[in-house]
Amino acid sequence: MIQSSAETAEKIATGMGNASDSIQQATDKTIAKAMKTTLQVNQQAQQANEEVMALARLFNESFRKTIRNIQLASEEFERTDSALAGELNKLNQVPNYLEDMYTYNKAKNG
Questions:
Q1: N or C: which terminus of the chain carries fewer CB neighbours within 10 A?
Q2: What is the per-residue pLDDT across 78-87, written as a single tens digit (0 to 9) for each?
Q3: Entry pTM
């Protein structure tokens, strides 16, 4: 029988979700810009910071989709595992049926 662990997958997804929340909190913060300077280097640093924040937001969006996919895969494995267990349970009844048929035929034929 296939063994899957929705509990383990959920723990992993929860940990990943917590990490994603931390990323979200970090990217929600605004970076104070130095407005009194006109140095080109300072403007370039501000632009670089904005680009990093945008990349972090994109990463976090993809990360959250990955978390959801892990949860969906775990749910699907659980459904499949349950269905397979039901089918295997039916197969376990076959030997009893065959034994009953053998006993019946033996008694019938003397």
A1: C
A2: 888 889 888 8
A3: 0.65
Per-residue pLDDT tens for 58-109? Answer: 999 999 999 999 999 888 988 888 898 888 888 888 787 788 888 888 888 8
Residue 51: name the closest of 17, 19, 27 by CA.
Answer: 27
* Residue 48 included in any domain: no
Q: Please tell me whether residue 35 adopts helix, strand or coil conformation.
A: coil
Inter-CA distances, 74 with 16, 20, 33, 91, Å: 15, 19, 44, 25
Query: Is residue 108 included in any domain, yes or no?
Result: yes
Q: DSSP code of 38?
A: -
